[in-house]
Amino acid sequence: MTDGSFVVRRVVDEERPAVARLLADRWGSTQIVSRGLVHDAESAEMLVAVRDGEIVGTATFVVGGDEAELLTLDALEEGAGVGGALLDEVARSAAGARALRLVLSTTNDNLRALGFYQRRGFRLVELFPGAVDRARKHKPSIPLVGDSGIPVRDELLLVRDLGTA
Ligand SMILES: CC(C)(COP(=O)(O)OP(=O)(O)OC[C@H]1O[C@@H](n2cnc3c(N)ncnc32)[C@H](O)[C@@H]1OP(=O)(O)O)[C@@H](O)C(=O)NCCC(=O)NCCS
Question: What is the pLDDT of residue 141?
């Protein structure tokens, strides 16, 4: 898919190490903890946004049965449509794999992402108080304080129906 001057596509095998480094850099490791489960984003489905041969964004997700889970979404250039284009393509791929819903977890401090996802059809369906504090025991690299000085403690589950994706 093309949106302006960047392209969103599946990762090619040669790019996986670079994406893994990027994920480790942004998320502390490629192990993503969600709802108490540890996922290895490195072996998940991966999409990249590429501009002029440079990776400017990435998304990782898994599909299991009728549910797809977005593990990570990163735009290296914010506000340029990269995150939205990656999310659209994840939804399309998941729907193509017969998933009926796309779920994701985010943390209580990530107000920007909470707005971004809700403007794109996601509903808040569950709150897990203290889930990040518990995840931090497994992954000490999770920061104690996040965006806007907000303590990072809780996990929120968001869901988007893929019937219309
Ligand atoms: C959340 C995230 C993926 C969004 O990606 P993005 O490429 O900035 O998203 P888009 O450009 O498609 O949309 C950003 C929105 O901010 C608006 N915006 C305008 N100017 C902007 C600016 N200078 N900077 C950021 N956003 C701006 C856009 O218009 C858009 O508004 P909309 O939601 O009403 O459409 C990105 O902020 C990110 O990588 N965050 C860090 C990682 C993260 O938190 N990931 C999600 C956790 S699960």
Answer: 87
